[in-house]
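Fold it.
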Amino acid sequence: MHSYIPPARFLPYLSWTQVKNLPNKLNTLIIQPIGAIEQHGPHLPLVVDSAIATAVVGKALSQLDAAIPAYALPPLCYGKSNEHSGFPGTVTLSASTLMSVLMETAESLYKSGFRKLLLVNGHGGQPQVLDIVARDLHERHSDFMVFPLFVWGAPHGVAKIVGEAEYEQGIHAGDVETSVMMALMPGQVDMTLAVKELPNNFPPGSLLSLEGRLPTAWVMDDLSRSGVVGDATSATAEKGEAILASVVAGWVKVFEEIYRFEGLRPSEACERD
């Protein structure tokens, strides 16, 4: 059941008495991988986001100093994926349902004595939901540190591996995700069906973007006939291994910093003009 998570770092393998007696629960990292079950083109399985989030968390935990207490929960494989609802196989939760699941999961962890929760999300369609959940939890419990994190948000060198253009434009099922899945689950990738598809978005010099400071709402049917946005035909397992190594190294640093993090606080004095 632990999948990519090291067994010694998998919280459900503990008994209730072991959880009760964990030392330093206030500074134990509890990590919730979050993904989605949604289309990723004709060549990739529906489980891409969940697989990548879980694998990155598990590989980072494998490299983390054993002296740092950290445990992963089972991945939450369903997410808010309604932008892909036009493609069969996609399973989506509403924003309110996803928020309820995360809020209630977090409340249980808080009741168990944990005070640091990391939501490590692999699906680009739901960071805003996680932001709301994290802030609401912290507002409810001022001593609860909740981190809404994106799997691609840790330091990494992925753009150097696939090229700047593909890294910026290949936002779904392109070179990056396909390469990683070739490294993780090669038997579930059919490269004979891989395609390259990029949408006709905005004119050169436009202030608008799909994602960024001035985004517009979209669903995948607006962007792609295949469900791919990027160049999946360029993917290789070798690139996937390099991407994973780079991203995992970044997450080890993130886990270490969150372990050291003592929370936010205002300065002791404020200045007036």
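The radius of gyration is 19 Å.
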